[in-house]
Amino acid sequence: MPFAFTHLVTAWFVGLIIQTKKKLNKLSWGLLLLGSILPDGDYIFQWIFNVQIHRSISHSLLFLIISYLILYFILKNYKKEKYAIYLTIGVTTHLFLDLFIYPGIMLLWPLQYWISIFGVSLTPSVKEISVTYLTRFSGLAIMDMILGVAWLAYLFIKGKLKF
User: Fold this and answer.
1) Between residues 138 and 90, the one the model is more confident about
2) pTM of the full predicted structure?
3) What is the pLDDT of residues 14-69, one digit of tens each?
4) Could you write out the three-class secondary structure of the chain?
């Protein structure tokens, strides 16, 4: 199960690949890295509200499109709408990594199909998977998210991580 740090590092590598063709500014990097952990924000809602939603709406193509459109129109007010694509790239890297973990993700949410590299399944329910992962991994996932972001922020502030 990829935690936040794995998602961040993967997005960072994708950013480095993009930089071979085009220099990314700080806003591009920030949105790329934010997008890489944004889908797992549903852990916070699960933890606070005790609802089983992990790997459903926030891990779907619908979420990918809506998050892009919302950010696009927010950034349009500042004439920076072209940067919204970097959030989308970050979310896409997240969804790609989660395809490698059983039972996969509900990429076509609200349809109840779990899609992974292992195939398509109707078997696991969101509740079944969420309760299992929530009880086993939510504390670790939240801690990993906090530590990963803090570590990257520290390296950036100290000038040891350059974008």
Assistant:
1) 90
2) 0.76
3) 999 999 999 999 999 999 999 999 998 887 887 788 877 777 888 899 999 999 99
4) CCCHHHHHHHHHHHHHHHHCCCCCCHHHHHHHHHHHHHHHHHHHHHHHHCCCCCCCHHHCHHHHHHHHHHHHHHHHCCCCHHHHHHHHHHHHHHHHHHCCCCCCECCCCCCCCEEECCEEECCCCHHHHHHHHHHHHHHHHHHHHHHHHHHHHHHHHCCCCCC
Alpha carbon distance 59, 109 (integer Å): 8
Q: How far is CA 132 from CA 34, 125, 136, 137, in A?
A: 26, 11, 6, 8
With CA atoms as reference, report the closest residue to 55 among 4, 111, 103, 121.
Answer: 103
Q: Summarize pLDDT for 124-147 with one digit per residue, the tens.
A: 555 555 555 555 566 666 777 777
Given the structure tokens 């922020």, which residue do they identify?
153
- Torsion of Cα atoms, 152 then 156 then 158 then 163, to 10°: 140
Return the pLDDT at 56.
81
119 bridge partner residues? 116
Q: For residue 2, say if its preceding peptide bond is cis, omega within 30 degrees of 0.
A: no
